[in-house]
Q: What sequence folds into this?
């Protein structure tokens, strides 16, 4: 059972303006569990999409050799036919269909063109036994938990006679018990000769389960570590993930930290559908005037959920806790209340939650503060125009005019429109969720300058980011959050990627450095 | 590399920007409408479509659809749809009949039927607002898709109309009530005597037309001056003047033709008033802007602090109030409240809005565009009638016009 099952040779994949993968080589041995690590945006998912044919042959350069032959997959169906099955973080199951139906979806067992239900249920039962799922095959997917749904996905992969199983963040949404069951299952499958590639942020899992770990950074392979025998620690992996040149990418500034402007006490929030699942767990934070405070956490750690629950209860149910703005308890029950209390939140997903893409810059900039433009009964379009032009100049929004539809702007310029919109409500505290996601290096620098300017004007700024160097580069103080709880607080002087990553992947237990 | 690419798009965009002052799509629709008018002027026997009385008919025959379309465009911009408006119009017509004409038989309620005609209209529209509150409650606060609420309302209010009318018609209405649907401003030509205008022309129609043209110019010039003061890009001077001269000529022609017939229909005055008011509401009030924001990106609107439920609620209150007004117009024009009134009008109103350039996904649309869309349908039907085109062909053509108008929209959007 030795030898190489998969070899990806000098894979390069570019998107307009971005090199997502740069000459990546990956070797996966037959019958191993191969972990792929890297920060968000390092290129892990892109690499897996290339492998599974989501990005078809021809849209990238390089070769894929699977099972001894060069493969040119042009879609998922091609790769699945060869036994490469990918399970995404967002599961691809149909909630109202049964377990058995989902397992054989697009692969139905038929007799004379009709579905043979007896055979379907019997085969489903066999597959479910193999993955350790004890449920009635006729149970609708929506009635079983995420952990079991994950098992259904694996059973579905087995039904396709999988040779190489790719799992993208399989345990991100699972509790400890489900996670360990899943990891045990992967080991069992390995013993049956099924190779797995697992993408994970949970380093302790990788440490225990992986045979080999490949680390990606900025679209390049940093190194492949043999996990067997040698003692590869989590610290070693972290170093590979974050160790990059950080000089001159962040503008320097001297912070003038003033009195407290925002205090959140014992903040709790539950999942909007699954009311028993606690998403934000007893979070307490403080932000001072003139201070840039980072909120570090891996995806799904509850950073965005925390921010949005504070911002007018726009996420979550059964929210409890207190918010103080400038020493006074603030009402944040609706978004309008939160804005009135002096809190602004710029979303991580500007296309879905931030902008009206079919409207122009002007109307987007003024939307949250439209009341200020009303003269008599009517909104003064001319005043809006003047204000939007001010922002176009001060924020350096590159567009022919403020009447340009935001859809036509680049990511960086769209972000500047979102920031303008929130600066214009004149908040005391700005929560910026992934303010530089998906924008190029030059625009990032401009965004950093804007953030610093806001702080120097005496506002409190919270920056949520997946990029640790970014947080360390611009923040005065950083909170780490994991599984919905604050797991550490680090001052600028003590902040380094290794320390933060340790907190971000830690079990809940607050530590102060 | 990225720099030069950016410059190129900037150059292209600025060209597009120059054309942006000129609303190509809406103007295109307008040109299509003019083309239709021209076509029927040539093809109808003796140019019957251009006769004074035909202009008059066009307005009063389409008035109630256009009133519905004003409410419908707002509903559609917000990303909803309302299928109940035809039934609501019938129900409110019946209510108006009860209030103004027929004595109620129940003891203690006789006073209701003694209402003067104008109070009857106010009462009927107030009932319409309550109907809207009912629909808005289900859509905005319970979260039932507007399509379902409208479908249910379509049956519900048709049923209530039947109950109210007890399977009969109510009529005739007092003359003052009928006038809103059938009447003309100063039909007796009192103004002619004062101004010494010959009796073959209606003087008040001419005066109103001139006032309208004056208002048009004042508004256009004021807007332009305001924009220039704020250093905004404005339409090229030549385009600005030629556009307004053409508009003036058209308004003048229609006004002149109307003055050769019976004068200005009250329905037209009402419509112009509504179009102006609702255009202002949609462009320049917080409410209007929130409607566009909700339709354009619901999530972004919520995260901008907009009370989406409240806005949705009032959109439906407004829609049913306008449907009520439409019901009053229908009853007035037919001089009786009938159970079948407004049957299928919701579809005409929806077609008007989509032909007028609104997007099915929401976020896009204008009141004036919907009016032009409605007129395209009205002129088409009217011209085909004058040409004695059969109802079968008419339906086919109307269907194709709707389909192609929206297909053209989709196509031009994808090309971008």
A:
């Amino acid at each position: 059972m030795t030898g190489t099952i998969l070899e990806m040779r000098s894979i390069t994949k570019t998107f307009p303006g971005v090199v997502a993968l740069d000459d990546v080589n990956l070797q996966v041995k037959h019958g191993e569990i191969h972990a792929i690590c890297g920060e968000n945006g390092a290129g892990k998912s892109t690499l897996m999409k290339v492998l599974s044919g989501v990005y078809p042959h021809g849209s990238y350069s390089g070769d894929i050799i699977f099972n001894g032959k060069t493969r040119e997959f042009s879609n998922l169906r091609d790769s699945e036919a060869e036994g490469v099955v990918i399970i995404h973080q967002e599961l691809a199951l149909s909630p109202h269909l049964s377990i058995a139906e989902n397992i054989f979806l697009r692969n139905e067992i038929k007799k004379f063109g009709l579905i043979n239900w007896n055979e379907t249920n019997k085969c489903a039962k066999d597959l479910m036994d193999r993955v350790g799922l004890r449920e009635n095959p006729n149970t609708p997917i929506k009635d079983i938990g995420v952990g079991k749904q994950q098992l259904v996905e694996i059973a579905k992969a087995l039904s396709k006679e999988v040779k190489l199983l790719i799992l993208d963040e399989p345990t991100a949404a699972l509790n400890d018990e489900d996670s360990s069951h899943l990891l045990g299952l992967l080991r069992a499958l390995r013993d049956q000769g099924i190779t797995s590639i697992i993408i994970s942020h949970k380093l302790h899992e990788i440490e225990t389960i992986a045979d080999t770990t490949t680390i990606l950074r900025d679209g390049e392979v940093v190194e492949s570590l043999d996990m067997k025998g040698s003692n590869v620690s989590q610290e070693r992996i972290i170093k590979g993930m974050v160790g990059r040149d950080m000089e001159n990418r962040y503008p320097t500034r001297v912070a003038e930290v003033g009195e407290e402007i925002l205090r959140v006490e014992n903040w709790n929030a539950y999942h909007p559908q699954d009311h028993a699942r606690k998403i934000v767990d007893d979070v307490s934070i403080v932000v001072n005037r003139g201070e840039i405070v980072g909120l570090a956490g891996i995806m799904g750690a509850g950073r965005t959920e925390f921010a949005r629950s504070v911002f007018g209860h726009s996420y979550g149910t059964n929210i409890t806790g207190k918010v103080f703005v400038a020493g006074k308890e603030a009402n944040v029950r609706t978004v309008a209340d939160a804005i009135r209390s002096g809190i602004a939140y710029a979303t991580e997903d500007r296309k879905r939650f931030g902008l009206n893409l079919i409207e122009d810059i002007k109307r987007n900039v003024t939307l949250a503060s439209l009341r200020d433009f009303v003269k008599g009964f009517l909104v003064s379009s001319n005043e809006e125009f003047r204000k939007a032009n001010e922002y176009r100049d001060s924020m350096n929004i590159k567009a022919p005019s403020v009447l340009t539809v935001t859809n036509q702007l680049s990511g960086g310029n769209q972000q500047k429109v979102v920031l303008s919109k929130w600066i214009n409500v004149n908040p005391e505290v700005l929560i910026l969720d992934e303010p530089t996601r998906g924008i190029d290096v030059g625009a990032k620098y401009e965004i950093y300058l804007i953030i610093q300017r806001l702080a120097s004007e005496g506002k409190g700024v919270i920056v949520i980011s997946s990029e640790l160097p970014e947080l360390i580069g611009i923040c005065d103080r950083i909170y780490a959050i994991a599984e919905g709880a604050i797991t550490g607080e680090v001052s600028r002087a003590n902040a380094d990627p290794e320390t933060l990553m340790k907190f971000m992947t830690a079990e809940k237990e607050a530590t102060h450095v | 590399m990225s720099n030069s690419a950016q410059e190129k798009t900037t150059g292209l965009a600025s060209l597009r920007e120059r054309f942006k002052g000129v609303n190509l799509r809406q103007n295109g629709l307008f040109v299509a409408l003019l083309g239709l008018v021209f076509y029927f002027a040539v093809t109808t026997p003796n140019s019957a479509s251009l006769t004074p009385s035909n202009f008059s008919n066009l307005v009063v025959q389409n008035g109630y659809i256009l009133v519905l379309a004003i409410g419908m465009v707002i509903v559609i911009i917000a990303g909803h749809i309302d299928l109940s408006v035809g039934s609501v119009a019938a129900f409110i017509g019946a209510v108006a009949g009860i209030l103004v004409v027929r004595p109620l038989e129940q003891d203690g309620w006789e006073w209701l039927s003694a209402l003067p005609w104008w109070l009857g209209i106010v009462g009927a529209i107030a009932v319409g607002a309550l109907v809207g509150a009912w629909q808005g409650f289900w859509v905005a606060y319970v979260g039932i898709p507007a399509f379902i609420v409208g479908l249910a309302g379509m049956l519900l209010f048709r049923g209530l109309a039947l109950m109210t009318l007890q399977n009969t018609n109510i009529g005739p209405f007092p003359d003052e009530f009928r006038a809103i649907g059938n009447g003309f401003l100063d039909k007796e030509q009192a103004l002619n005597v004062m101004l010494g205008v010959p009796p073959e022309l209606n003087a008040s129609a001419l005066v109103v037309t001139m006032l309208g043209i004056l208002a048009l110019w004042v508004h256009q010039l004021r807007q332009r001056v305001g924009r220039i003061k704020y250093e905004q890009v404005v339409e090229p001077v030549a385009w600005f003047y030629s556009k307004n001269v053409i508009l003036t000529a058209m308004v003048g022609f229609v006004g002149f033709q109307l003055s050769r017939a019976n004068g200005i229909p009250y329905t037209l005055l009402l419509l112009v008033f509504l179009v102006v008011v609702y255009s202002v509401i949609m462009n320049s009030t917080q409410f209007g802007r929130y409607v566009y924001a909700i339709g354009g990106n619901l999530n972004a609107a919520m995260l901008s602090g907009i009370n989406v439920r409240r806005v949705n609620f009032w959109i439906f209150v407004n829609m049913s109030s306008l449907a009520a007004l439409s019901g009053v117009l229908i009853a007035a024009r037919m001089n009786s409240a009938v159970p079948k009134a407004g049957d299928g009008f919701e579809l005409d109103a929806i077609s008007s809005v989509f032909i007028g350039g609104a997007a099915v996904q929401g976020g896009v649309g204008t009141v004036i565009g919907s009016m032009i869309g409605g007129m395209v349908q009205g002129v088409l039907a009217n011209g085909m009638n004058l040409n004695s085109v059969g109802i079968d062909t008419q339906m086919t053509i109307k269907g194709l016009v709707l389909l192609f108008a929206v297909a053209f929209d989709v196509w031009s959007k994808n090309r971008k």
Summary: The first strand of chain A starts at residue 4 and ends at 15. Chain A touches chain B at residues 17, 311-312, 314, 334-336, 338-339, 345, 347, 352-359, 363, 367-368, 370-371, 374, 377-382, 385-386, 389, 398-401, 403-404, 408, 410, 421, 440 (CB under 8 Å).
